[in-house]
Design goal:
Blueprint lengths: L1 H4 L7 H24 L2 H9 L16
């Protein structure tokens, strides 16, 4: 199909297939990573922005 749009694309079939395979491998890898994550880790990361820091050594506001 790419050869209809770009006639010089005859030799790129390998790269088209490779990019499709890599996309699906990364996609499946992320799905597996999400499924195998521990519930405690997910809860910790989801509450992280809401936690109040007790450490006052970092002064981001300058006050």
């Amino acid at each position: 199909m790419l050869s209809r749009i770009y006639p010089g694309a005859e030799g790129y079939a390998f790269f088209q297939g490779l990019s499709l395979v890599l996309f699906f491998l990364v996609f499946i890898g992320v799905i597996v990573l999400i499924i195998t994550m521990k519930k405690d880790y997910i809860d910790k990361m989801s509450n992280m922005p809401l936690e109040i820091e007790d450490d006052h050594s970092t002064n981001y506001g300058g006050h």
